Amino acid sequence: MEDSLHKEVVLRTDGLSKKFGRRWAAKDLNLEVHRGDVFCFLGPNGAGKSTTIRMILTLLMPTAGSIEMFGMDLHKNRRAVLSRVCGIVEKADFYLYLSAYKNLEILGSMTRRIEKREIMEALEEVGLKARAFEKVKTFSHGMKQRLGIAQALLTKPELIILDEPTAGLDPQGTKEVRELIKKLFRDREMTVFLSSHVLSEVELVATRMAVINRGELIAQGSVSELLAKEATEYSIEASPLEAALELMAKLPWAKILSAQNGKIEVHLEPGHSSELNRFLVNHRIEVSSFYPHRTLEDFFLKITEGTSEI
After folding, report:
1. Given CA atoms 308, 162, 186, 112 in this order, what sign does their dihedral have?
2. Count helices and strands in the chain by DSSP H and E runs
3. Alpha-carbon distance 91 to 210, whole Å?
4. Whole-angstrom Cα distance, residue 100 to residue 125?
5. Nearest Cα residue to 122 out of 140, 107, 137
6. Which of 29, 88, 96, 236 is a plausible cystine mate for 264, CB 3.0–4.6 Å?
7. What pLDDT digit, counting tens, does each position of 236-270 carry?
């Protein structure tokens, strides 16, 4: 959905580059994150994701290029810009022998006076209110990650940056962090920028993404649009089903693979997906879903192997 929220650019990089010795860890990156995005920065380990995030958070100085946030040059307006941003790089660190509440009280007070109500609200937001007064040393890795996000929420950021937030988590911890990210996006309309190499996670939470490999940007755009490119097999939910099948049988570039439970599996010649959708709607077929079978893993492997024109 392209409403006004999603059109406002909150983060833009122009030619952002970082060189270590003779090696470019990031080279000529032009990223664009819109307000309200769950934007995933995707790439294999060592692709340059963490280096880029450290430059965005001013933990590293770029070799070349510029960063703009909220319409302001980051390095000319560092304090004003970063007061609206919170970043968690790698893993959140806490005082293990203190409670979750006490940790947030101490860490929150470093920026401003924090009220007890705000701390409890942040803990409730991340599902840790019931464990507020337990020592952090008893927390699982996933709980510590969620506590780190609670700490970030105390600053009321407009943009939250997470570097590999599910790294090292078990399946339950991964699910909890994933659901939390979706909740922040849905309930708070918060812009989330997260890096990951876990393809399945991206497909479940991201609205837009950029793919980086060997420090260079390979693709950027909405997840659905990028996955739709070059896809040939689609699942379509249409009603009435029989009428849709009868219409599609007349199309020379569409081959029906199966049809059951209101869903049609179809093979299309490249470039005809939008045409088929319009064709069905124009013939008064109700199309409730239309999506490609191409997975994010297919897409990622193809473009990082350098075989795509994207």
Report:
1. negative
2. 12, 15
3. 22
4. 14
5. 107
6. 236
7. 998 899 999 999 999 999 999 898 888 899 988 87
Which tokens hold the place of 104? Answer: 């947030």
CB atoms within 10 A of CB 193: 23
- 3-state SS class at 211: strand
Token readout for 157 is: 């950021």
Q: How far apart are CA 44 and CA 42, in angstroms?
A: 7
Q: Could you tell me the CA-to-CA distances from 4 to 35, 36, 67, 182 in Å, in that order? A: 9, 10, 22, 20
| pLDDT tens digit sequence for 165-223 | 888 888 888 888 888 888 888 887 889 999 988 777 677 788 899 999 899 999 999 88
> Taking every pair of C-alpha atoms in the chain, what is the biggest distance, in angstroms?
70
H or E element that contains 187: helix 171-188
Phi and psi dihedrals of 187, rounded to 5? -90, -35
Where are the alpha helices (H) located in the chain, listed in sequence order? 4-7, 49-56, 78-82, 100-108, 116-125, 141-154, 171-188, 199-205, 223-228, 241-248, 273-282, 296-304
Helices 116-125 and 141-154, interaxial angle, to 10°?
Answer: 130
DSSP 8-state assignment for residue 3: -
CB atoms within 10 A of CB 78: 13
Q: Which residues, at least 6 apart from 100, have a Cβ–Cβ distance to it below 8 Å?
A: 94, 123, 128, 131, 132, 133, 134, 136, 139, 147, 150
Helix or strand (DSSP H, E) at 72: strand 72-73
- DSSP letter (8 states) at residue 154: H
Length of the chain: 310
